[in-house]
């Protein structure tokens, strides 16, 4: 706690101000509450399974591209860099970053879409909300309580991602915003997507380097690298452009956020500020939006990607139909929840826990 008092800004989330846990625990002699959260997430089975869950591209397209696990680690790395320079709580940031995708089912957003459709009778499926369900109910690693008993700050930070914010009227009271540490993880997630999805698409041959030069943000990064390095081989050039782009996006975010933070003197000021404090400049935000639109049209909607998603959709739907109509065939720990949660939700919990390869293997065994 003394270390936090010396290093963290007044608008950061200090451990001593934590709202605590649903099940009170004694303080650890040398780990802060958020360090303990981080460790519990890392040791969870849901976190381990991220190694074999799709980020954007399935394993059928190759093995260079990011998995949910490598994406998560990259987000944590970027987020901690931002958090350190802004004097925020790095332990909380790391816990939030490591947790942010553990609710993803197999096959990424394609699997999520199918599960949402299949679960229309029991509230649908959202991977952010499911992450909260995992850490409060489904992970059972401690004898004293269900779930991981994480701090309120980590749980509420994940809940913020799950909620859809209604548009408020002009006279409606402004609700408090998320902690700055939560905002940092969201910003880092966006930077990781924008840069690493392009890198993966280039490596897999879904894009040519020249295709991306039509995007201003990418073109500027390439020109910056050419000025500094004149004789790089194509692969080294591409990787250097990726590094340059990440550096550009992080630097703009940090400098722009620092200006906004000059108006903030406390944690209360930060969460009541209104607009998101941790955000890029208007100019870079517009360029990021152009890059994201390009990736949506040319990568996420690429015929090869769509073909793999069709296979994923077929397998998830077939597995859901099988287990929801025959819940006795569920593994015991999921079958035990049918009486309280229903066959659809228990089936959803089981399918969401699967890795890509296990889901495909299970689907093939059905045929």
UniProtKB/TrEMBL annotation:
GO terms for molecular function: dGTPase activity. Pfam families: HD (PF01966), HD_assoc (PF13286). The keyword Iron does not apply. InterPro entries: dGTPase, dGTPase-like, dNTPase_2, HD/PDEase_dom, HD_domain, PHydrolase_assoc_dom. It comes from the Bacteria. Residues 68-194 form the HD domain. Belongs to the dGTPase family. Type 2 subfamily. The keyword Hydrolase applies. One of its GO terms (biological process) is dGTP catabolic process. CDD domains: HDc. Keywords: Hydrolase. This is Deoxyguanosinetriphosphate triphosphohydrolase-like protein.
């Amino acid at each position: 706690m003394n270390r936090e008092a010396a290093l963290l800004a007044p608008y950061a989330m200090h451990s001593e101000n934590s709202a605590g846990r649903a099940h009170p625990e004694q303080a650890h002699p040398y780990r802060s509450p958020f360090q303990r959260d981080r460790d519990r997430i890392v040791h969870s089975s849901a976190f381990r399974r991220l190694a074999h869950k799709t980020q954007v591209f399935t394993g059928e397209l190759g093995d260079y591209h990011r998995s949910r696990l490598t994406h998560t680690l990259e987000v944590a790395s970027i987020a901690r860099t931002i958090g350190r320079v802004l004097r925020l709580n790095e332990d909380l940031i790391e816990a939030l970053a490591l947790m942010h995708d553990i609710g993803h089912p197999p096959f990424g957003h394609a699997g999520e879409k199918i599960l949402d459709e299949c679960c229309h009778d029991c509230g649908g499926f959202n991977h952010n909300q499911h992450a909260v369900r995992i850490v409060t109910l489904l992970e059972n690693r401690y004898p004293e309580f269900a779930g991981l008993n994480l701090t309120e700050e980590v749980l509420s930070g994940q809940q913020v991602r799950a909620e859809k914010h209604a548009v408020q009227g002009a006279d409606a009271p402004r609700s408090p915003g998320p902690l700055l540490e939560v905002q940092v993880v969201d910003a880092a997630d966006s930077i990781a997507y924008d840069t690493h999805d392009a890198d993966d698409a280039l490596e897999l041959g879904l894009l040519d380097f020249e295709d991306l030069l039509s995007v201003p943000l990418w073109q500027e990064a390439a020109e910056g690298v050419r000025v500094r390095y004149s004789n790089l081989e194509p692969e080294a050039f591409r990787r250097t452009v990726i590094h340059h782009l990440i550096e550009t996006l992080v630097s703009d975010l940090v400098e722009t956020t620092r200006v906004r933070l000059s108006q903030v003197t406390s944690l209360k000021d930060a969460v009541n500020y209104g607009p998101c404090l941790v955000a890029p400049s208007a100019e870079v935000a517009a360029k990021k939006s152009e890059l994201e639109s390009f990736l949506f049209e040319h990568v996420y909607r690429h015929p090869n990607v769509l073909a793999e998603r069709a296979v994923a959709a077929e397998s998830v739907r077939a597995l859901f139909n099988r287990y929801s109509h025959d819940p006795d065939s569920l593994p015991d720990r999921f079958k035990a929840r049918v009486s309280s949660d229903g066959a659809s939700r228990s089936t959803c919990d089981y399918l969401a826990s699967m890795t890509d390869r296990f889901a495909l293997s299970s689907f093939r065994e059905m045929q």
